[in-house]
Specification:
Shape: elongated
Strand content: 15-25%
Number of strands: 27
Structural class: alpha+beta
Oligomer: single chain
Distance between the termini: 36 Å
Length: about 750
């Protein structure tokens, strides 16, 4: 079972990495991917080996909360519940932040006076009233620490478990500064000490907590604005629908609709279910799925999809898919799964962040101890300890990649591009070879019969009837062309019983007790057609192939009775797309089961010179593997079942069309719009995303690497007498994490 859950309590990449690592060790879990930015986890697990209760318990033991969906209430209910939960949590965090800021302002005014050399009232002046000065800061600092108590509770717990995270560093730094200050206050009170003899770090302790709270509040706010995309999709399904019961229209909850129910759709409303139009007419806006703003006329027999908008007209729909089984629900699940995954560079960053935290603890302790041994100054050592601890927190590093992935995935979904696995961003960015399926991908998939050659004693109508009957249940474009020709001529189309698909070769069926075989040359050889007849027919097939047509042979009761020529035109935008890919220095191939002459003819029209033809579906992955062995990074683009193995084998795969077919299951990205220009959008978005990730990592690492030596006192060591104040370290850390989020937000402007 593959399922996505929300997780509460994660604050850094170390949290995500350790939780992911822990869950992957559990018996029954095949895969676990945790995403910090979306605060979610994608699990592939065996429910017979590990129950939801066990999963919840294991996550809770790690210090987090797993929130399962209510499968009986639908996606909208679950998402609204999630929004309510986040709003309540955000309100609580805002109140805590408000308390912290209220007390930090006077703490700043008092604590900075010795540094900035301005006078305070006599009663709290650090020179004339050092006791009052210290005690006042103590009283102002305590409410701030209580407002941020969650950092201490979680941080120390993780530290005692030897699984430190960002909260552990924050808690340790704030606690150390506070305890040192309390000791200094006691010494000032009972030994008549001065501020210069016993420095105070209440301001540092309070500022660490407040700035971390502010940083996370702003991060969540920026992410929250962009996370409404999914809710807007879910909201396309109306809460109430008009159901026809015994001829009477009744308003019902959309969740109560089941397959087979009849639904009345009126102007200005959205369609609540996937279904088939039974009667009436409607002008339907399909732009959320196709991108086209031109409304489409729907009448009896046409399919409609939940979420589409009926601009005008009345019609009745019979429900074929409802609730979580609709096309739109499938898209939403794919988007959520795509956000939860991350590119290989992201997994590396998570590991680095997880190991950086213990390293920071060790480095801060060593720095403080060495400076104390060198100078014998407790206050100086404390300054070094807290500054290193804060400045080296890998908050920005842990957020750098998942935040870009989430924003890029949401942007893609708004353009009709569903990212199932975000690993594809990195692979498409590096891809130098694009391999296209021919029929339905490079071509329109609307093939038409151009030639019909029959051999005596069969007439064209009789042979066409048998061929169309055999192909009537197939979804292949060539089969559809034969059935369309039969309907056009009005010949009878019968139900085949039985029918057998022979992958890559054709179909075998029984029509009115007559065995009919329809397919390519290999199928005719397989059923032992007379070799002499095949040799004679091959001349006809070769001539048709040279014209760019696909030839299909028909045999009845083991005797070859005719040849059908079918032609499919390339998509009008195909040549333009291929030429632009070439400008990007990308090599293009056609991989198809069609005969070489027909494939080459289409290839010439769209400017593709590399043709791999006559390839059976089961051998297509082998052809992809061969290109990979030549050192190429391969992107496969296909639209049907025959492409599934190639899509899975390629470094990345793009499926064109429906997100609920076999091709989409094997692909990393699904294009809802069959316009090939969307491929160019995917390439540009992948490059933009990877550039954004690299920029984020640069900001994060440079910030840490540049500031860490300063915090450790290296400049002071070389005689510059400059020591980074812990307060400045807190501000720098805050700006580092916010800069990463703001940079990722630039992906929203992608066009």
């Amino acid at each position: 079972m593959r399922k996505r859950f929300d997780i509460e309590g994660m604050h850094c990449a170390s949290c995500a990495y350790r939780l992911q690592k822990h869950l992957r060790k559990l018996d029954g879990i095949r895969e676990a991917n945790v995403n910090l930015a979306s605060e979610s986890i994608l699990l592939d697990y065996d429910p017979e080996k590990i129950t939801l209760r066990t999963l919840t318990s294991e996550v809770q033991e790690m210090g987090y909360k797993l929130i399962p969906d209510n499968d009986n209430r639908g996606q909208r209910f679950n998402y609204e519940r999630k929004i309510r939960r986040k709003n309540i949590k955000r309100k609580r965090r805002r109140n805590q932040l408000t308390v912290a800021v209220i007390f930090l302002i006077p703490l700043l005014a008092i604590g900075l006076s010795p540094l900035l050399k301005y006078n305070l009232p006599f009663s709290i002046d650090p020179v004339y009233s050092p006791v009052n000065f210290a005690v006042m800061q103590l009283f102002l600092c305590v409410p701030i620490l209580l407002a941020g108590w969650r950092f201490f509770e979680k941080g120390w717990k993780r530290l005692f478990r030897l699984q430190p995270n960002i909260d552990s560093l924050v808690a340790l730094g704030a606690t150390a500064a506070f305890i040192y200050s309390v000791v200094s206050t006691v010494l000032i009170i009972y030994r008549d000490g001065t501020i210069s003899d016993h420095p105070l770090y209440y301001l540092t302790s309070g500022a660490i907590i407040t700035m971390i709270m502010l940083g996370r509040f702003l991060e969540n706010g920026l992410r929250r604005k962009h996370q409404n995309t999914l809710y807007r999709l879910i909201s396309l399904i109306p809460d109430l629908s008009t159901k026809i019961i015994d001829g009477t229209e009744t308003s019902v909850n959309t969740l109560d609709i089941v397959v087979g129910d009849k639904i009345r759709v009126t102007p200005g409303t959205r369609i609540p279910v996937d279904g088939k139009v039974l009667s009436g007419l409607g002008m339907i806006d399909e732009s959320i799925f196709t991108g086209s703003k031109t409304p489409v006329l729907k009448s009896a027999g046409d399919k409609v999809i939940a979420g589409m908008f009926n601009q005008e007209g009345y019609f009745t729909v019979e429900a074929t898919h409802t609730g979580n089984d609709t096309f739109l629900s499938g898209i939403i699940r794919l988007i959520e799964e795509g956000e939860t995954s991350q590119p290989p560079v992201g997994r590396l960053a998570d590991k680095v962040s997880a190991w950086v935290i213990p390293a920071v603890l060790i480095l801060s302790l060593l720095s403080a101890v060495m400076w104390y041994l060198f100078l014998g100054d407790y206050a100086f050592a404390m300054n070094i300890f807290v500054s290193v601890l804060v400045i080296a927190c890998p908050v920005a590093i842990g957020l750098a990649i998942p935040i870009s992935v989430v924003f890029a995935s949401r942007k893609a979904s708004s353009m009709g591009i569903i990212v199932r696995r975000s690993e594809a961003f990195e692979q498409i960015h590096k891809a130098d070879t694009f391999v296209f399926n021919l029929t339905g991908t490079i071509t329109e998939g609307n093939a038409a019969v151009t030639d019909f050659i029959t051999f005596p004693p069969f007439s064209e109508d009789r042979l066409l009837s048998l061929a169309a009957s055999a192909e009537s249940e197939s979804k292949h474009p060539l089969a559809k062309a034969i059935v369309a020709r039969a309907k056009e001529k009005g010949v009878p189309i019968l139900i085949p019983d039985p029918v057998k698909l022979i992958a890559g070769q054709g179909i075998e069926a029984v029509i009115l007790e007559e065995r009919v075989d329809i397919g390519n040359y290999k199928l005719m050889e397989l059923i032992n057609i007379d070799p002499d007849v095949l040799t004679e027919t091959s001349t006809i097939i070769r001539e048709l192939s040279n014209q760019g047509k696909t030839a299909v042979m028909i045999a009845v009761e083991g005797v070859l009775q005719g040849v059908i020529a079918i032609e499919d035109k390339p998509r009008p935008e195909a040549r333009e797309v291929i030429q632009k890919l070439k400008q990007m220095e990308i090599s293009n191939y056609i991989l198809t089961g069609e005969h070489a002459p027909a494939a080459k003819n289409i290839g010439e029209k769209v400017d593709i010179n590399h043709i791999i033809a006559d390839v059976l579906p089961q051998n297509r992955s082998r052809q992809i593997r061969k290109l990979q062995h030549e050192g190429k990074t391969v992107l496969m683009i296909g639209d049907g079942m025959n492409d599934a193995s190639a899509l899975a084998q390629a470094n990345a795969g793009i499926a064109i069309g429906s997100p609920d077919n076999i091709a989409a299951d094997a692909a990393d990205i699904v294009l809802l719009n069959k316009d090939l220009r969307q491929i160019l959008v995917v390439v540009r978005l992948s490059r933009k995303t990877m550039r954004n990730i690299k920029e984020n990592l640069f900001f994060a690492f440079v910030y840490n690497l540049l500031m860490l030596p300063v915090a450790a006192g290296v400049l002071y060591l070389f005689g510059l007498k400059f020591l980074l104040d812990p307060l400045i370290a807190v501000v720098a850390m805050f700006l580092g994490s916010i800069s990463v989020v703001i940079n990722a937000l630039r992906l929203r402007k992608f066009k």
